[in-house]
Design a protein that fits this description.
Length: about 325
């Protein structure tokens, strides 16, 4: 009898402890669920609002727009007027949806901060009465180049093409102001397995480089002194790029398009003046090809095409062309 009572007491105690343990575990489970960030509900049972995904295009426009706002203020207080350069920046801002009036009000509540390189180059609007130097403007434009180079990596193809062109225009303005452009690592494309669109863009770039090499061979003979040296340097650059594209296309398992034995020139080239005009035109046409290549690919492919676009835009100005807000975008 004693054994039976003892057994009943032990069983009741075990059941009681089991219930307490179950209750404790339930309570712990509830607390864990309430404290977990993965749970879709709050402790009150209401649905937890999920964060709205950030659109890469919107974020890029905001960051670049904030830097443009600062640059526009710098041009407005410049020690030397640069109406043409400011006009180019204003046109670029408008293309991104930033107006001159809106940019002034936006400075009080600028969107997400720009990367350190751009922020350091354009570090706030100038104080009242302080004149902005050409060196500061050039530094700001160089910061815009760097920001566009970063921004176009994750944006939509159309916006990437626009940002590449804006960066090229900023590069032209920076050199006009006597500044130096930021150096960037050249993407290694040797291991890239190009898509059909990327391969087509390489073929188009190769054809453009072949025609450019031919053109420089013609115009170089009509120049002398420093201009001839400049033509020789650019000729060698284009030959190297032509050969690099040929190798990339071959490594991708495709046959590079062969260049023509000769090309028709857009106008008669008979002296140094017309030779310089031809060089500038060749670079402008090349910029358009690389602008189209930017939107044909992603990541390193975009970065490489954008770098080539900037280089062509800067060479065009060096040959006497006027800076333009949108190098490589003839529709603008």
């Amino acid at each position: 009898m004693l054994y039976a009572v003892t057994s009943l007491l032990m069983a009741a105690s075990l059941r009681r402890r089991s219930l307490l343990s179950a209750g404790l575990l339930t309570a712990l489970g509830t607390l864990t669920a309430c404290g977990s960030s993965a749970s879709p509900t709050t402790h009150a049972g209401h649905a937890r609002p999920r964060p709205t995904p950030v659109d890469p295009d919107t974020a890029a426009r905001q960051r670049i727009g904030a830097v443009m706002t600062t640059l526009l203020a710098g041009y407005d207080s410049a020690a030397h007027p640069h109406a043409e350069l400011r006009f180019g920046l204003t046109a670029q801002a408008a293309a991104l949806g930033i107006t001159a009036t809106a940019s002034r009000s936006a400075s009080a509540a600028a969107p997400a901060p720009a990367p350190a390189s751009a922020s350091a180059s354009a570090s706030g609007s100038p104080a009242a009465g302080v004149r902005t130097s050409d060196a500061s403007l050039a530094s700001g434009e160089a910061g815009l180049v760097a920001l566009c180079s970063t921004g176009l990596q994750l944006t939509s193809p159309a916006l990437a093409r626009l940002l590449a062109s804006i960066g090229a225009g900023a590069a032209q303005r920076a050199t006009q102001l006597g500044g130096r452009l930021p150096t960037s690592e050249t993407p290694d494309l040797s291991r890239l397995r190009p898509s059909t669109a990327e391969l087509d863009a390489w073929q188009a770039s190769l054809a453009a480089e072949q025609a450019t090499v031919y053109g420089y061979g013609v115009l170089g003979a009509l120049l002398s002194g420093g201009l001839r040296s400049q033509a020789t340097t650019d000729y060698q650059l284009h030959r190297a790029r032509r050969d690099a594209l040929d190798a990339l296309i071959t490594s991708a398992g495709a046959a590079p398009h062969a260049g023509a034995a000769a090309y028709d020139l857009p106008f008669q080239v008979a002296d140094a003046s017309s030779a310089r005009c031809l060089a500038a035109l060749l670079e402008d046409r090349l910029a358009a090809v690389y602008a189209n290549a930017v939107q044909a690919g992603t990541a390193g492919f975009r970065a490489d095409a954008a770098a080539q676009l900037r280089a062509a835009a800067v060479r065009s100005v060096a040959w006497g062309a006027a800076p333009t807000p949108f190098p490589g975008l003839p529709e603008r």
